[in-house]
From TrEMBL:
GO terms for biological process: galactose metabolic process. It comes from Candidatus Curtissbacteria bacterium RIFCSPHIGHO2_01_FULL_40_12. The active site is at 138 (tele-ump-histidine intermediate). Keywords: Carbohydrate metabolism, Nucleotidyltransferase, Transferase. PANTHER family: ADP-GLUCOSE PHOSPHORYLASE. It comes from the Bacteria. The keyword GTP-binding does not apply. Pfam families: GalP_UDP_transf. Residues 80-141 form the Galactose-1-phosphate uridyl transferase N-terminal domain. This is Galactose-1-phosphate uridyl transferase N-terminal domain-containing protein. InterPro entries: ADP-glucose_phosphorylase, GalP_UDPtransf1, GalP_Utransf_N, HIT-like_sf. GO terms for molecular function: UDP-glucose:hexose-1-phosphate uridylyltransferase activity; zinc ion binding.
Length: 290
C-alpha cells in the first residue's frame, strides 16, 4: 500500500506507491493492430472492480457508454479509472456533446460519492509525455486523505479571456506556469465541483471540448507560428493534462505538455514560461473551433 512521507521543513509530502511500477505499458505506436485493450467492450472482466456505469446495467457486461472501475495499480486507497466511452480512439475533442456530458456526469457523481473519504482529485493524462500509460481515452480519480497538505493553486483572477459562455470563462491566467496553459473558471463561484448545477454541467460539455479543440488545432502540426513567438508544438500527437480542482471555488486547469522542466526549475521551484499568457489567449481566441 502507498506510504505518505512528509518533509518536515516545507510541510510537503511524497507518496511512495511501488505497486504503480507494475502497471502495463502500451506500445507507443497506436497502430499495433493485434493488441487487446482492456478498456474496450468485451474485456470488462479484466480491469478492476466495476463501481459505476452509464446507463445502468449488468456489471462486467458490454452495453455501457461510460464505465468506472477501480485502478489495479492504485496511488492511494481510493483510485478509480473513468473510461470515457467504448471508442478506443476518440476523446473529449472528438466525442459528441452528449457523450462528453455523460463523462462529466460520471465525474460529478464519483466526486460526490468520495467526498467523505478525503480530497477528490479528478485528472486526465493524454499522451505519453503527459503520463498516460493506456491509450484508450480515460480519466482518473484519486482520493487523498485530508491530513495530507496539498500544494495546489487556488483559482486565479480572470484575465486574458479566450471565450466565455453563460456559465464559464476560458482564460489564460497571468500566473501561468506552462506555455498555453488554459483555465476554465465557472462564473458561479464558491462551489465544489460536485455542486455544479445541471445547466452548468451541460454548458461544460461544450466548453471543455471547444477549448481542447482550439489547443490541439493550434499546437498540432506546428503550422501556425506567429512572429516573435517561440516554437512550441505537440511532437507526437496531443499531449496534455487537465485536472479539476478538488476544493471549494473549483476550476479546471489544462496544461499542454510542450516543454520539459529543467534543472533551474527543479532546483528553485520557479517556473519559466516561454509563452506570455496574454499572447496565448489572443492566439486561442482567433483559433476557430475545428
Ligand atoms: Zn480500448
Amino acid at each position: 500500500m502507498a506510504k505518505f512521507v512528509p518533509d518536515v521543513t516545507t510541510n510537503r509530502w511524497v507518496i511512495i506507491a511501488e505497486g504503480r511500477s507494475k502497471r502495463p505499458k502500451e506500445a507507443k505506436a497506436a497502430s499495433n493492430v493485434n493488441k487487446i485493450c482492456v478498456f474496450c467492450p468485451g474485456f470488462e472482466k479484466i480491469p478492476g472492480t466495476e463501481v459505476y456505469r452509464i446507463p445502468q446495467g449488468e456489471p462486467y457486461s458490454p452495453g455501457w457508454q461510460v464505465r468506472v472501475v477501480t485502478n489495479k495499480y492504485p496511488i492511494t486507497d481510493f483510485h478509480e479509472v473513468i473510461i470515457h466511452s467504448p471508442d478506443d480512439v476518440k476523446d473529449f475533442d472528438r466525442l459528441s456533446v452528449e457523450q462528453v456530458h455523460k463523462i462529466l456526469t460520471a465525474f460529478r457523481d464519483r466526486f460526490n460519492f468520495h467526498t467523505k473519504n478525503g480530497y477528490v482529485m479528478i485528472f486526465n493524462n493524454v499522451g505519453e509525455v503527459a503520463g498516460a500509460s493506456i491509450n484508450h481515452p480515460h480519466s482518473q480519480l484519486v482520493v487523498v486523505p485530508k491530513q495530507i497538505t496539498l500544494d495546489s493553486l487556488s483559482i486565479e483572477p480572470v484575465v486574458n479571456p479566450v471565450f466565455e459562455t453563460d456559465h464559464f470563462v476560458v482564460h489564460c491566467p497571468d500566473f501561468s506556469q506552462w506555455p498555453f496553459e488554459v483555465w476554465l473558471s465557472p462564473k458561479k463561484r464558491g462551489e465544489y465541483f460536485g455542486q455544479i448545477a445541471p445547466e452548468a454541467l451541460a454548458d461544460l460539455a461544450q466548453v471543455l471540448p471547444n477549448t481542447l479543440r482550439r489547443l490541439i488545432k493550434h499546437l498540432l502540426g506546428g503550422e501556425h507560428f506567429h512572429p516573435g513567438m517561440p516554437m512550441v508544438a505537440f511532437k507526437d500527437g496531443p499531449a496534455y493534462n487537465f485536472y479539476i480542482y478538488h476544493d471549494k471555488d473549483w476550476y479546471i486547469r489544462i496544461i499542454p505538455r510542450l516543454v520539459h522542466r529543467a534543472g533551474f526549475e527543479l532546483g528553485t521551484g520557479l517556473s519559466v514560461n516561454i509563452v506570455d499568457p496574454a499572447d496565448a489567449a489572443e492566439i486561442l481566441k482567433e483559433e476557430t473551433e475545428g
